[in-house]
Write a structure and sequence with these properties.
Strand content: 25-35%
Order of helices and strands: EEEHEHEHHEEEHEHEHHHEEEHEEH
Radius of gyration: 22 Å
Number of helices: 11
Largest sheet: 6 strands, mixed
Distance between the termini: 21 Å
Number of strands: 15
Structural class: alpha+beta
Strand order of the largest sheet: 13-12-11-14-10-15
């Protein structure tokens, strides 16, 4: 069961002017499954993407990078679930490109204006014929208010669809931001087996979109980890349709730029945290906060060492305050001149360790009280400086093994 995560109510998701979404069944892996989603963009939309750093990246990731680099305005996105089209070589690339050509022909736009995305089983041939046959039905189903349906349509091992939406005022105009994401396993920064799409009707200089996408990813999807595995298909796309009617934002450091960035970061971070809350087999949502570092980078080293440790994550599942595992992770994180006598460790409000050892008045029953909670904060103070950073993770349960052992069956 997901940790304090409920499905979004469709009425809470604001339509984005200039975006229409259609969802249908293509029979990619399971008959009757709503597994094909198209996102249709009006002319003039600005689009940027951030993709996996896994060198064995999937065919659709390669095609998306090619199409964005070509500089052709993006007019549509096509997403299939059930098959990742990864580890499929030249045949996978040909099938991804054929899908783009087919959708481009139906929309009367160039194939380069289509971005393809796939998620699901790796090293199986993409049934592109089924996908292409279902494209007309997806286009016919396209509506502005289909965000909730799309959030459900892109799921794989997710148990809950993930979506978020906010509105702000810029230049006297109401601006909407809405996003969806999928992901539950193979989740590790840089990014993960996740797909994320955040759209706004804000008016923004297209030259700012790449920097905006990178900043949003860095503050959200690159701060979560479920199991430490970086997938082949990670993709995060940011869309601005330019329809809100306010004066265009020409700097992310302007008041309007900061307001838009904050709103989009809120949506992105909500989606990223929802992925952790719905992590495969997760029973607990864990915030790892590292403070007192010399740089944010070394704080992240420590935070990820804790968040990735199977020993730490299984201890959280068992509600076992075996907290030496956390200190061990701090020690092997990679800070070579770390002084253990300056480290403090907290579980929520419980001060566990100080000056290199167990705090004199720490009681194990206090640690266990915190470990039994569904939401837990681990706070480490390094005593080296003033930098800080945060990542979000979950525990490891028996169910994680079951899900991944049975994934292809």
């Amino acid at each position: 069961m997901p940790v304090n995560l409920s499905p979004p109510h469709p009425s809470s998701l604001h339509p984005i002017a200039g975006v229409r979404i259609g969802v249908t069944s293509a029979g990619v892996r399971k008959v009757g499954r709503q597994d094909l989603t198209v996102v249709l963009l009006d002319e003039g939309a600005a689009v940027a993407g951030v993709f996996t750093q896994n060198r064995f990246c999937a065919a659709p990731v390669q095609v998306c990078r090619e199409h964005l680099a070509a500089g052709v305005a993006v007019r549509a996105i096509v997403v299939n679930t059930g098959n990742a089209n990864a580890g499929t070589g030249e045949d996978g690339l040909a099938r991804a490109r054929a899908t783009c050509t087919a959708l481009g022909d139906l929309l009367k736009v160039s194939p380069e204006s289509i971005l393809p995305f796939s998620t699901g089983v790796i090293m199986e041939s993409l049934p592109s014929d089924r996908i292409m046959a279902a494209l007309p039905a997806a286009i016919a189903a396209a509506k502005p208010d289909n965000w909730a349906l799309a959030a459900e349509g892109i799921m794989t091992t997710d148990t809950v669809p993930k979506a978020s939406s906010v509105q702000i005022t810029l230049g006297g105009r109401t601006v909407s931001v809405t996003g969806i994401a999928k992901g539950a396993g193979m989740i590790r920064p840089n990014m993960a087996t996740m797909l994320g799409y955040v759209a706004t009707d804000a008016c923004i200089d297209p030259s700012l979109m790449k920097a905006l996408a990178l900043e949003l990813a860095e503050g959200s999807f690159n701060r979560v980890t479920v199991d430490g595995d970086t997938s082949t298909n990670d993709s995060f796309v940011v869309i601005a349709t330019q329809k809100a009617g306010h004066a265009p934002i020409t700097s992310l450091d302007s008041a309007e730029g900061r307001a838009l960035r904050d709103a989009m970061l809120h949506v992105s971070r909500t989606l990223a945290q929802a992925i952790v809350r719905d992590g495969e087999g997760a029973t607990k949502f864990i915030t790892v906060r590292v403070e007192g570092g010399r740089t944010p980078e070394e704080c992240r080293l420590v935070a990820y060492a804790i968040a990735h440790s199977p020993l730490v994550k299984t201890a959280f599942f068992a509600s076992d305050p075996n907290l030496g595992r956390i200190l061990a992770a701090v020690g092997y994180a990679g800070i070579t001149d770390l002084d253990q006598t300056k480290i403090d460790l907290y579980l929520d409000d419980v001060h566990v360790a100080t000056q290199g050892g167990r705090r004199a008045d720490y009681r194990e029953e206090d640690g266990q009280r915190v470990m039994k909670q569904a939401e837990i904060t681990v706070r480490v103070v390094l005593g080296r400086g003033h930098a800080a950073d945060t990542v979000w993770t979950c525990d490891f349960s028996h169910e994680y093994v079951t899900i991944n052992a049975d994934y292809r069956s």
